[in-house]
Amino acid sequence: GGGVTVLVGSPLTVAFGITAFGNITATAPVTVAAGGSIASSGTFAFNAGSSLTNNASVQNFGTMTLVAGANFTNETGASFTNSGPLTVSSTLTNRGSFTNNGTIDALNGTVQTQGSFNNNQVLNTKSLTVSNGSSFTNDFGSVLSITGASATLQVDGNFTNNGTVNASGLMTVNGSFTNN
Questions:
Q1: Do residues 130 and 155 lie in contact, with contact meaning Cβ atoms separated by under 8 Å?
Q2: pLDDT digit string, tens, across residues 65-110
Q3: Phi, psi angles (nearest 5°) of residue 42
Q4: Contacts 24+ apart (CB under 8 A), 60-69
Q5: 178: phi > 0 → left, psi -120 to 50 → alpha, else beta; which?
Q6: Rounded-to-5 percentages of helix, strand, coil across the chain
Q7: Cα separation, 175 vs 53, whole angstroms
Q8: Nearest Cα to 18, choosing from 42, 51, 48, 46?
Q9: Which among 59, 69, 72, 165 has most CB atoms closer than 10 A?
Q10: What's residue 33's pLDDT?
């Protein structure tokens, strides 16, 4: 229901469907197991001591925040869709399918993709790594900004740009970089 606040203070494994319209705050690890799902239209905050590991399906329609040390891993075979503001002050590792239809602020964090990553809106980060065997697509009308102290773009896989890339810092391409 709307307006409900939930505090996750002990490790939680989700093997069922959760649809949330209220506030969820995690201070312990949250794992979405095979067959589980989370669809959040409220506020989803991962504080110190927590993490999010997705092995199935997570959708963010609201606001999601991961503070320093609260890492997010989207595992092989899993799917994550962001349609709201997502703030990452830690490490976001994608091994599955990741679609950004909102705004990701990872200027105080890092983004690593070892799967398929589609940026359909705005991604701001200081570090993006596209691993060998993976793909990153910056779609038409989208903006990828890689800025800040020690900003890096490391492409060992396939990078396709159909939008705008603003990059300052070190850019290394050992894979393929297609700029349309």
A1: yes
A2: 999 999 999 999 999 999 999 999 999 999 999 999 999 999 999 9
A3: -105, -140
A4: 60/84, 60/86, 60/102, 64/40, 65/89, 66/90, 66/92, 66/109, 68/108, 68/109
A5: beta
A6: 0, 60, 40
A7: 28
A8: 42
A9: 72
A10: 98
Are residues 107 and 127 in contact, defined by beta-carbon separation less than 8 angstroms? no
The whole-number pLDDT of residue 158 equals 98
Question: Would you tell me how many other CB atoms lie within 10 Å of the CB of residue 15?
Answer: 13
User: What pLDDT, on a 0 to 100 scale, did the predictor assign at position 4?
Assistant: 84
Tokens (6 digits) for 170: 């070190």
State the Cα–Cα distance between residues 84 and 6, nearest whole angstrom: 20
Place of tokens 């705004």: 103
Q: Backbone dihedral region of 148: left (phi > 0), alpha (psi from -120 to 50 degrees) or beta?
A: left
Collect the ranges in the chain with pLDDT lower than 50. Answer: 1
Token couple for 156? 């060992």
User: What are the residues facing 87 on neighbouring strands?
Assistant: 65, 105
